[in-house]
Design a protein that fits this description.
The chain is built from 12 helices and 2 strands; from the N terminus they run H-H-H-H-H-H-H-H-H-H-E-E-H-H. It is 55% helix and 2% strand. The radius of gyration is 23 Å and the shape is globular. The chain is mostly helical and 285 residues long. The chain starts with 12 loop residues before the first helix and ends in a 26-residue tail after the last helix. Strand 1 and strand 2 form a beta hairpin.
């Protein structure tokens, strides 16, 4: 079967290229990366291999070369382009925009292969904040009130859309008196491509929250935020232990928040553990 017709099943353009190459290679042992580069108009025989490995990105010009070389039809080409833009986007807003377009393509061309709509929960950073806000004692079910309450700017129209999304997807709901309350909800994912897409969205979400944390250093009073840093040397074993302790602390904080009956603000906790030096000769931290 022509893999181009299956493109709407893919959530990652690199996986699509890998599968295209794999099928060509299966049908002919003579098919190499040099031939793949030739058919798509690239002078470097290793370029597409590096793209598949995530070591190189595509430009609008190289996207068009692949579209032409693979003979993608209009809808297939547009979908492929959106996958590239989504994967290579640097901001959460960009990723959210392209995710919306990707699902619109899927809805029209492969309605049975829609992405889990819970992906949108992380694609827009304010979804999780608004979800927590409904727990505030002075919460007002009004987009304008919510928009003014947020410290980072969000349009009231986007807030209204967030409320509708959160309620429709079961992240929040109404109790017997009609008041909005937070509900338990877990993120769902499917194949490996969808898992990678979710990981990409999650990474962008973390970057956004780290950016907000940096802003808080200059815009929030010291009594309103806490920032501390520790530089330390770790072995591979103690690194794993540190990760487990961080996860334990996160769960303990969730329990503290759950037991608090006098909440009055929504907070974000970021804990980062990352290397400052290169690995040793054995590849260990």
């Amino acid at each position: 079967m022509n893999i181009n017709k299956e493109i709407f099943n893919f959530s990652d353009f690199r996986l699509f290229l890998k599968e295209f190459y794999s099928r060509k290679k299966t049908s002919s042992d003579r098919f190499t990366f040099s031939l793949f580069a030739e058919m798509t108009g690239f002078s470097s025989p290793s370029f597409l291999k590096l793209v598949m490995q995530g070591k190189k990105n595509l430009t609008p010009q190289s996207i068009q070369k692949i579209i032409t070389g693979l003979h993608l039809k209009k809808k297939q080409a547009d979908y492929f382009t959106e996958l590239v833009f989504f994967n290579q986007a640097t901001s959460l807003e960009e990723k959210g925009m392209h995710l919306d377009t990707i699902n619109k393509f899927r809805k029209k061309n492969r309605p049975e292969k829609l992405l889990p709509e819970e992906f949108d929960y992380l694609a827009k950073w304010y979804h999780c904040v608004i979800r927590e806000m409904v727990e505030l004692p002075d919460f007002v079910d009004d987009p304008n009130w919510i928009a003014k309450k947020l410290l980072f700017s969000v349009d009231s129209g986007d807030v209204a859309g967030s409320l509708a999304f959160l309620e429709k997807k079961g992240f929040i709901g109404r109790n017997e008196s009609g008041k909005l309350v937070k509900k338990d909800k877990t993120l769902a994912t499917g194949d490996i491509g969808e898992q990678e897409m979710l990981n990409t969205i999650a990474r962008a979400f973390h970057k956004t929250m780290v950016h907000f944390a940096a802003q808080s250093l200059s815009e929030r009073l010291k009594t309103e935020r806490n920032t501390s840093n520790t530089t330390l040397s770790l072995s591979e074993k103690s690194y794993d232990m540190a990760i487990k302790r961080i996860e334990q602390m996160r769960l303990e904080l969730l329990e503290i928040a759950k037991a608090d009956s006098h909440v009055n603000r929504v907070y974000q906790v970021n804990v980062n553990l990352f290397p400052l030096t290169k690995a040793d000769a054995h590849g260990k931290p």
